[in-house]
Every structure is written in C-alpha cells, then in structure tokens.
Amino acid sequence: MHSEHTFKQYDAELEALRGKVLEMGGLVEQQIVQALEALVKLDSNLAKEVMVNDQLVNALEVQIDEGCSQIIARRQPAAGDLRMVMMMVKTITDLERIGDEATKIARTAQKIFDEDRMYKPRFNEIKSMVALVREMLRTALDGFARLDVSKTVEVARQDELVDEHFRSAMRQLITFMLEDPRTISMSLEVLFVAKAIERIGDHAKNIAEYVVYMVKGKDVRHISVQEMERETLEP
Prior knowledge:
Layout: H1 2-41, H2 44-75, H3 79-115, H4 127-146, H5 152-179, H6 184-216, H7 225-233
Helix pairs in contact: 1-2, 1-3, 1-4, 2-3, 3-6, 4-5, 4-6, 5-6, 5-7
C-alpha cells in the first residue's frame, strides 16, 4: 500500500512539473505575439509588458529546474522517467531562450518608440515568419503535452521554411542598403528582428526533437528531415 502511494505521488510530481512547462510555453507564446504587435504598432506599453513577462518566464525556468533536480535526487528515476526529466530540463532552456528573443524584439520596438523617428522601419514583411514560428512552437508543445511525435517532421519542415524567409529578407534588405545608404539603420533593425524570429524557430524545432527522444529514446538532432521522418515512423 505504501509503495502504491509512493508511485502515485511520484507520478503526480512529474505531471505537476509537466504542467509548469506547458504554463511556461503558453507565456512564451504570448510574448511572441505581443512583441510583434508592439513592433508593428510601436506600442511602448506592450513592449514593456513583454519585458516584464520575461522575468516570469525566467522564474518558471528556475522553479522547474529545481523541481527536476529534486526528483533526480529523491526518486532516482530510470529509463522513461529519466528521459522525461531530461526532456523537461532541455525544453525549459529552449523556452527561456525563446522568451529572450521575444524580449529583444520588444526592446527594438521600445528603442524606435523612444527615438520618435520621422522614418520608421516597416516590419509587415516578417509577419509571415512570426506566424510560422508561433505555429511551430504550438505544435511542439502539443507534442510535448501528448507525448506525440507525429508532427515532429512537420515542425522540422516549417523550420526550413523559416530559414528560407530569413535568407530572402536578408537579400532584400542588403539590396535596399546598397541602393540607398539612408536605409541602412532601418534595414539593420529589420534584419535584427528577422534573426531573432529565425532563432525562435530553431528553439521550437529543438523542443519537438526532445519529444522524439522521450517517446522513442532516439536522438534526432543534427540529422536531415528525411532521416528524422524514418526515425519517427519506426515502431
């Protein structure tokens, strides 16, 4: 009876931590949305809210990390449970970095707002990139919640599309700067934001890959999309 109670308590601890990870993921997704809106509308208050939320994200990372450390010390998990704990530790690291990238975007919005320039950069062209990375993050977190690897390849393909968008934006911005040096400052700011969005996509892809490691015990980092597809389809 005591043993059964202990197992139930152990499972409850793991589920509580998983719930905290998903809470952190929801907060990070909100940061992404608010950062883009702050940028497009040059909304100073919204930019500040993103920065405040980043402190909450950081606090959740510390809290979850401590919880994982306690489980390892007290429960000494093995096999699937150990992979679960490791997956959570890795996932919160990527979520925290996504929050950092969203905060960089918010700071760019704040800087442009504070300087009150006559000519402001146009960020409309990167909206499609943000929509893609937001969908990637949502899909990756859904896979985490359900322990489902079926959409991992889709996330990897979306990451390649985000990379294509970034390269296209970079080529366009370089052309603008060469044709008119007055656009250099504005173009660099757009490029800075585009790079931050591209990095968010990389972190979302990482999270999807950790789910594969948890469910199948296979490390699919640094392999091609085709190889990943084979690994996820194998029983």
